[in-house]
Model the fold of this input.
Amino acid sequence: MSIKKRPGQSTGKSGGIFQEIGPKGGLKPNFATVSDNKPLPPTSKPKSYWTPVETTPNSNR
Done:
């Protein structure tokens, strides 16, 4: 869980399920599913960030 992404930051090729982390590092019960190359949604509190829980597999289509 060392990867931190701010709200509005692009997921790049690592879309999937993200969990909100508070400003002091505590896990919040707030999850978001974001597809590849899309911005992350706003967090519930300022100075919070998102961390990936599970990434989606790459497709060869």
In short: The mean pLDDT is 90. The two ends are 29 Å apart (CA to CA).
